[in-house]
Structure prediction request, 196 residues.
Amino acid sequence: MEDRHNSDLIEFYKILLSDDRKKWQNPQLILRQFGDLRGKRLLEVACGPGYFLRHAAALVGPQGFVLGIDSQPLAIKMCRERLEAAGFSNYHLAVKDAMETPWQLGTFDCVLIANALHDFGDANSVLRNVGESLEPNGKVMIVDWKKIHTKFGPPIEKRLSKKQAEAIMLQAGFSKTSSYEGLPYHYLLVWKKNIR
Prediction:
């Protein structure tokens, strides 16, 4: 059964890494919504096989650093292979549940949560960890599926509308700083944590 599960995951991850995905979810365009990332420290929560993380490692450059966490060991393995093959050394990867304790307190300039907010069983725990991991002027980017019917992606009943995602972020103590409307299937929201 384990082999079948891994085989299914591998096929799913291949889809996530396909060149076709760039047509509707361009990682460079999305990551640039953070602004200039050179020298920044970026955390990706639920990084999967590294679709965004590979591009983030390039954008932060050798003076920057990226950390990718995911609960699936196979995703982290594939992500590591991609980053090594591209020659990056400015990264760390960890098999970790996003709802567990914070990753590195007050360390990150940017946190990316792409296509995952709708999957978190306890979004408040995840966002509390995100807030504690951010440095005081840090930003959080949420990219998630619009609550519309599409040929692919999670079932519509599982998706969060933009308004629902905004309510979750506000409740978690974040303030919206910007949004980007140019993605066909996703909304993109950038937040900062409220300083108490």
About this structure: The chain is about 35% helix and 25% strand. The longest strand covers residues 134-145.
